[in-house]
Amino acid sequence: MKVENFSTNGLISFIKNTYPVSDFTANLIADNFEPVILPKHQLTLREGSINSDYIFLETGYMRSYVLDIDGNEVTTNIFKPNEMVFEVESYFQRKPSNENIETITRCIVWIGKYEKCQRLFHTLPEFREFGRAILVKGFTELKQRTVSMIKEKSERRYENLLLESPDIFRNVPLKFIASYLGITNTSLSRLRK
Length: 193
Description:
It is a single chain. Helix content is 49%, strand content 22%. It contains nine helices and eight strands. It has a four-stranded antiparallel beta sheet. It has a four-stranded antiparallel beta sheet with strand order 2-7-4-5. Helix 1 crosses helix 2 and helix 4 packs across helix 5.
């Protein structure tokens, strides 16, 4: 649901904290995003479609997931407030996505459509640098998660997530957290005790 009269303050603050830009440039970037309220459990990207939305998640929680060979959902990422949400390969290479992205809670988001963002990438060096900063952060987090899944025991992955993002445990169903950690619901329940 598109909304009117939403303040861009959160989006502008996020832009400026991600890459230092002037107030004028931050406002110029923010003017290319539209505020939308998304209900709980709404897909914003379906596997097989092309990701055309560059989403700033202002409030709420979202996740990306894939279906494994048995048809089970496996959570690949959990997104919290003040993060960008998009599927990199599909967005930039215009390929059908292998992932689904859905809201876990009701969310307020700011959506930058592909065409508008491409215009910004090509005309505004500060937006290119902002985008690069987002990609570097995402790549670094993915690399850390991949290494963690190989080198650390489930207990350590659980402890790290609890330390870094305790809010996730208050807002995200445990089955999604367990899947994200690469463990069963039963194992997560045991760890929480």
